[in-house]
Description:
The chain is α/β, with parallel strands linked by helices. It has 14 helices and 17 strands. A hairpin with a 4-residue loop joins strand 13 (310-316) and strand 14 (321-327).
Amino acid sequence: MSAWTEPVHDVVGIGLGPFNLGLAALADPVPDLDAVFLEARDEVSWHPGMMLPESTLQVPFLADLVTMADPTSRWSFLSFLKESDRLYPFYVRESFYPLRSEYDDYLRWVAHRLPSVHLGRRVTHVRREDDGTYRVTTARGETWRGRRLVLGTGTSPTLPTCVRDAGGPAVHTAGYLPARERLTSCRTVTIVGSGQSAAEVYQDLLAASPEHDYDLVWLTRSPRFFPMEYTKLTLELTSPEYSAYFRSLPGSTRARLLREQRSLYKGISGDLVDAISDLHYRLRVQGQGPRTTLVTSTSLVDARWDGTSYDLRLHHDETDEDFGLRTDGLVLGTGYAARVPAFLDDLRPHLRLDQAGRYLADDTYAVDVHGGEVYVQNGEEHTHGFVAPDLGMGAHRSACIVNALTGREVYPVEKRVATQTFGIPDHLRRAHPETA
Length: 436
């Protein structure tokens, strides 16, 4: 009797955020693509610590898991609404922007119906076998084998080193809701950061402030609390051709551009900026404050926790002055970063990484030295630009990966969608008259 051997799948996906879930949905109808997807959590959830009741996505519903690659897919957001008997209410609502909670429901709806998805499988180790396949081990002791991998482990919250070293109950915005009750019992609550999440936390705590006895402080390094730019020609930067152009630039230029493009993806929605200002006015008219302080151009230099409160050492970058703040509540809206997970340690010799230890993704999002064996989703901001975490580009990236995995164009991929040209147009690329 021959010994049983594990099946070898065409691809094993690790992690099940929106991007790998979108890949699973697009791979589902492809008959010659045998894919499995492993997720550590027992349930799919999307930013549960920021699931504020009235929060909406910052992208239209078309930026779901599949529509921008396949508008006919059964896994679209509109299909979810139809099956949930909410298509007409969504239509009557007349807003392109779904509630964050219903997008979260949509992700679970897809995950529970895809046979390729396996929840509760925390990956603990990956190695490349001598035959070129990949062996993936989970905490359950299971092993899964694949000819290729797609890494969709996403990004993790980042905290300033001084806060992490200080200890204490500081919370990243990713964990805001579980900490909300404790924060509202503080004397002073300080929020650091000026992105969308920090602004949503500020608005929520400001709205609750009349019912509680706390002062609210909002600090940012930015020179102002700036809105994200949504003008149409700027939105053309969320396009395949801009991503390809960005990838062609030197690393130092890419890093500079990402710093300069913060208003395109790290600001606050204009509607939320206005809503916060209106809330300030209403509280003032009603004689309820607001008891709040907003300070821009301020860097967090150091933090100390004494068991009761934080002593924050701050620096005002424009006046070049040091100052301090004592606060017992501290919320950090300090962003997220992609990291190579520890379970890939044995795989590092097979990965293309830069000097900072980050993935070096090619035009198909492959990151392995062998070529076309290991792919990454939302770990390539430094190579492909600020669109890496953008939900609107997720289906495009997944389509590129499906096409690469199958070796054919399963999903047509747009090469040019913008009216503007990035870089020098071919018809203008000619020698300077003096050197011709």
